[in-house]
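We emphasize that the prediction below concerns an isolated chain of 325 residues; any contacts that depend on oligomerization or on bound cofactors are therefore not represented. The input was used exactly as deposited, without trimming of termini.
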Amino acid sequence: MEFGTERIRRHNVCVRAFDSIKRDTIGEIDLILTINLVDFEVTFQVLDTYTSYNFLLGRPWIHAAGAVPSTLHHMVKFEHEDQKIVVHEEDEQSIYQDLLVLCLKASEGSEHIVHQAFEVVVVDQCEEGNPCPQPFLSNASIMVAKEMIKHGYKPGKGLGTSLQGITKLITLAASKKFFGMGFQPTAVDDKWADEQKNNVHKLPTYPEYPPVQQKQRKFKTDISDKIKEEVTKQLKARVIRVVRYTTWLANVLPVPKKDRKTRVCVDYRDLNKASPKDNFPLPNIHILGDTCAKHEIQSFVDCYAGYHQVLMDEEDAGKTAFTTP
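Result of the prediction step, given as a token string:
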């Protein structure tokens, strides 16, 4: 494709292809794409690489056009001005091969055969009898380390702009104000936390469902001790509180984890039956992935399961009561 480079806008985006190789884009460009006499203005990321295609259309265009692609039938359908538009595949073509990678050459007369693409892998050589080296860091850890070093970080130094700051991990400390990691809140932080208390969870129930109080279950002594340990931990963190008179009452369910610890869950099945179903559940994973597009870094830190900081409405808090052995 031929177009002026002055139309390309600089944009720092990293792309990872199917071979997991990192490639930086040159920038982005807006192009008018005509599909079956229908014009679309699409923003493309420009890369300088060997490919078997001119451009790729992803989910942003599919959602904008309301298109329905089918890999089985090799076609795309969408509606435009009350008309159904169908785009079929072109004739079979051989995949363009990278000249830098050795490959088998097709014999004369077999150019019409579609060649299967192959994956490029990195091979480490090791002497016979010696164990092969194995990576000890995940791809995400390596990517974070590269970004830190690229921005001037030096091992053994702090994370400040002048490499100042602590060099060792902070141990979690108990806090009375829901602030972890040794953070000391100021008056402004306390005010902000108090304002966040106005954002509460609502738990409506159908009026025709009467409150259910489950009979207390009995557990073995070792399981009861683990339940007591987890509940005491939540009480000290003020995530839960003791209540004397209840309308709804549920039992706890101990679930063993892979690290041989015990996760304490609550049997809210009766409460779920009496609660209206959410018509707008959590978004699918591909929607979460789309929202991360055009961003350099994505944080996977969940603030030490900080979702519990959204309080339950006082009128509905009694419905979440549970009993322990």
